[in-house]
TrEMBL record:
Membrane topology field: Multi-pass membrane protein
Keyword Membrane tagged: yes
InterPro entries according to UniProt: Transgly_assoc
Organism of origin: Roseospirillum parvum
Membrane-crossing residue ranges in chain numbering: 28-49, 56-77
Keywords associated with the record: Cell membrane, Membrane, Transmembrane, Transmembrane helix
UniProt protein name: Uncharacterized membrane protein YeaQ/YmgE, transglycosylase-associated protein family
One Pfam match: Transgly_assoc
Family listed: Belongs to the UPF0410 family.
One GO location term (cellular component): plasma membrane
Amino acid sequence: MSLIIFLLIGLLAGFLAGKIMKGRGFGLIGNLLVGVVGAVIGGYLVTLLGFSASGLIAEIIVATLGAVVLLAAISFIKKA
């Protein structure tokens, strides 16, 4: 069950990051991939800063933050 919740959070985070960074989503699979990878990145960054995310809303925020960082990095690499 926790895997399903993790994937749903990743899907929502990818959707939100797509709206924040590009103004549109990336489709179901794209949003899921961006969100799941973003959740891992966001979790790492938050832990690195000495914080922890507990609760569903905090996990969505951290995953979205990580997904935005991922999309910003991809955009930066594409422009270079």
